[in-house]
Amino acid sequence: MTDIFQIHDTNIFHKRFALSTKYIPENLIARDQQIDDIVNLVRPVLSQGEPKNAMIFGKTGTGKTVVVKYVLTKLNDKMKSEHLNISSVFINCRAVNTTTRIIFEILDVVAPDIKFQRGGLPISEYYNLLWKELNQKQLSIIIVFDEIDHLKDYNILYNLSRAGENHNINIENSIGVIGISNDLFFGEKIEPRIVSSLGCRDFIFPPYDATQLIKILNDRAKIAFQNDVLDDAVIPVCAAYSAQEHGDARKALMILENAGEVAERKKEKKVLEYHVKEGYEMLNIDCLLEMVKTLPLQSKVILYSIIKLIQNKGRITTGEVENKYKEVGSVISCRILGRTSISKLIAELEMIGLINANIEYRGRYGKTRLISSCKESEKIMSILLTDPWFSNIKDHMTSTNLFNFSHKP
Ligand SMILES: Nc1ncnc2c1ncn2[C@@H]1O[C@H](COP(=O)(O)OP(=O)(O)OP(=O)(O)O)[C@@H](O)[C@H]1O
Ligand SMILES: [Mg+2]
Fold first, then answer.
1. Which residue's CA is minimally distant from atom 24 of ligand 1?
2. What is this structure's pTM?
3. What digits encode the pLDDT tens for the residues 162-205?
């Protein structure tokens, strides 16, 4: 039988998982100060004191998640070896964002042995169960809310951080709350009462420079790749691409992984500089396509209209887009926006980099925006058509009767 996974006779990767964001490295580069800061927040709990609450800010890929996870792992090791009554819970608020689900997550760590009804009870009952379990087990707990902006209800931050003051938990137990966000203005979005309950010490993680990124990549590459498969230029070039864009370590690692993948697909024995370039372009396309999925419906309809028009005609005006948009909008039965809003959305699509447009001056007829191209239009089109709102359009393409569309999703 042929081995369908046997796509090459060279081997580029060794332990590829070391490039994933789930991997917590042994050594964190250039984050001693930040590790210290977080250890200092948590330290009081080791002597039955109250841990400090804090917010951690920093742009994407600056190591916020990995540094906090690293400290919690070390805390767990200490807790086990010294039999301390301390636990920690790490909540990714993008995945778990309702108050009840968060309390369930905490209960699963605090009291994995108990059975309780998951749902249908008032939230206060779940809080009471949590206080009871913490008191019974005489447990202190550090709770991390990663990507905290995604929380549905910020009151949970108040209730947890004020649990001691409100006499819900005993004096010898305590709860520490650490929030992580890449929005420096997060504090302005929530009630001052909640901000002050967090007592907020703020820490800001700075972006990495190229030298730091090189060190991060070198450490991972040793584990992730086979010996001697990376050309000397590969890591510095990955780091340089990423340093250009605010020093994002995640992006640097993704470029490196893509470069390896390109080399593997080309059945090369080594990863070379030009594989990095292709890997970088691949990443940009992936980001672009990811962005299309999350566009609001109106922008999707405009983008669809632009692609359709460009397929037939090289350069198009905003007036033509507007007409096509109205036609498509009525086919899928969505709300139709006015000219100003349409222009704004077209400008946004240009800003994101999905379309290219130029202003053309037409003498006494004024100026007009001419849209000349749309990147990756075929791939974008196939993503747009996966939106349930576009199911009528798919019928439209197979139907001869232009206006024979009945259902909305
Ligand atoms: N100092 C470091 N040393 C080694 N690896 C690092 C370091 N900082 C970040 N990384 C790695 O870079 C990737 C991104 O880091 P992380 O997920 O912590 O970023 P983040 O600041 O939480 O970003 P986001 O705001 O997008 O969630 C991870 O794979 C992480 O292991
Ligand atoms: Mg993170």
1. 60
2. 0.80
3. 888 888 998 889 999 999 998 888 888 888 888 888 876 889 99
Q: How far is the CA of 63 from the centre of ligand 1 (A)?
A: 3
160, 126 contact by CB (below 8 A) = no
Q: Which pLDDT tens digit goes with each residue over 71-103?
A: 999 999 999 999 999 999 999 999 999 999 999
Mutate to test the pocket of ligand 1, among 65, 72, 94, 218 (most ligand atoms within 8 A of CB): 65
Given a contact cutoff of 8 angstroms between Cβ atoms, the answer to whether 362 and 368 are in contact is: yes
What is the Å distance from ligand 1's center to 240 Cα?
17
CATH class given for the domain over 208-292: mainly alpha
Distance CA 59, CA 250 (A): 11
Report domain extents, the chain. Answer: 32-205, 208-292, 295-398
Q: Does domain 295-398 fall into CATH 3.55.40.20?
A: no
Fold assignment, 32-205: Rossmann fold (3.40.50)
Count helices and strands in the chain by DSSP H and E runs: 16, 8
Distance CA 30, CA 295 (A): 36
